[in-house]
Amino acid sequence: MRNQCCYHGPMRLLIVFSLITVVFTDPLLKNTSYGQVLGTIKQKQVRVWYYIPYALPPTGNYRWTTPQPPISWSSPYNATKSTPYPACTQPNSSQLVNSVIQEDCFYLTIYAPLNDSLRYPVMVWIHGGSNKAGSGFQYDGTTMVYEQNVIIVTINYRLGIFGNLALKQLQQEDMLNQTGTYGLLDQQFALKWINQNIENFGGNSSLITLFGESAGGSAICAHLTSPFSYGLFQRVIIESQTCQAYQSLEQAFTRSAVIIQNANCNKSNVLSCMRALTTQNILLYDPNSQGSSIWCTSVDGVSLLNFPIISISNGQYSKNISIFIGTNLNEYSLFLCLTVNQLGKTQSSFSITDLQTLTSVALYDFNIKTSTIINQLYPVNNYSDPYMCGVDIYTDAMFKCTAKYIADSMSSSSSVYMYSFEYHAGFSSSCTGIEHTYELPYIWPTLQIAWYPYIANSAELLLAKTMRSIWASFALYGTLLLPNGQSWPLYSKTTSTYGSFDTASSNVTIKNNFRTSTCSIFNPFYQNPPTNQHSFTFNSMALPSNQGSTPTIKATFFIDNLCTFLLLGIIKDFPYHIGYV
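Structure tokens predicted for Carboxylic ester hydrolase (581 residues):
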């Protein structure tokens, strides 16, 4: 018996050690700071861990507080189910197919190559949606990971009133006096989780790239300037941003007071009252949750020391960050198209008078005479119609010239590259031009469904693959190569060099002088954005007869002129056909 014991004992130990080895080398079972997570293998041989909690749910007394670490778990967390996916609280949307909209939304998803022996660059996606809509989990990283050997992480963050409410009571409750920046704090908390844990999934924590579109791109401007984001990333890709979606704390308090009044919580115990409300009632009391207005993040003096565009102008941003920034050719066509439709007009019936009226409101804070803009900088006779003239004006003021201003400001101390997406696919659209969100189906490969029933051709699919390759190459090296192997020239203030995606091919056309003839007139606004509020009522554009005999349009706006133009009171819900603002 003793011999048998001596014989079987080592065998049992060997079996135990073998089992332990299997557990710790399982490419789908990974350790995190809070417990193990079990992933799955998706098509094309990509490992995925769905919806890992990175913080405690922001519910109850945690509503409108800084994120807190999740409670550790003892058994492996099942991260294998792809649907339904969690989306942070927002108005219901047909875009959120197979989702569960809820406050409990602090999750992230990791896509990684199957080979577990290498260290891959990490790309963290911050979704757009006017700071009030969308989910990181609408975007599938499978193809990018399989093609380009990168790791993709998509995240959720609080939206709308839940991510941006600013109250003095919340400020007093917070140890650092933060308020109105909860969505930004969520992103920072997720980035800290990624820095601490991504190497367990095969990621290189020294090669983290933030990339985001629209409100997501604007958030990246905040990360470049926030002291709490310092050191959490090394590169950024900023798509179709404004970097202006911010408001002063005073503006935020004024905006929030309306909601408190609507909720009848304007008594001594404001926070208890607001935290006791259901999410649906909160959305009901928030006039900004409906329609096309956007929520602006507050400059609270703590997590954001100043408006990001001012901080960038003053050189107060993270240095040695590589930057790839770009816009679409006709960004504003999406918004102007929707505005014109709501006015009961068409592109062809949109008149010079209409253009003058809208320009006087939308660009009020730029302190530029409307006649100077329309007659000198953008002569309307040079365009096919006043509509396309308006598209050019507002695209420059709110997208292209902001991007140029950021590139001009940062190119002296950082490696900056610029792109312009200028290719129009062969489908017909109700809005003319290469508008906001048009690049998204190329980066997130949904060309075959984004414009259904139009089916992308092989050349367009090649363009999409080229763009994904360039995005991933930037994440790896922080520099860019053209598809022909030559270097993509750095952007400089003197040359304003950029790469144009203007053909359905693998070619990128290098051009100079990006909007140099028009953008300088907008610079004073970027250098000193206003902090006051305005309200306009005007009736020079006739509305449809069913709107009443004396139609009026009321526009109320704050710091961001993208907010400004989307706050026209007559605009209702509009269809996000490809992505989010």
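Residues 386-410 form the longest helix (25 residues).
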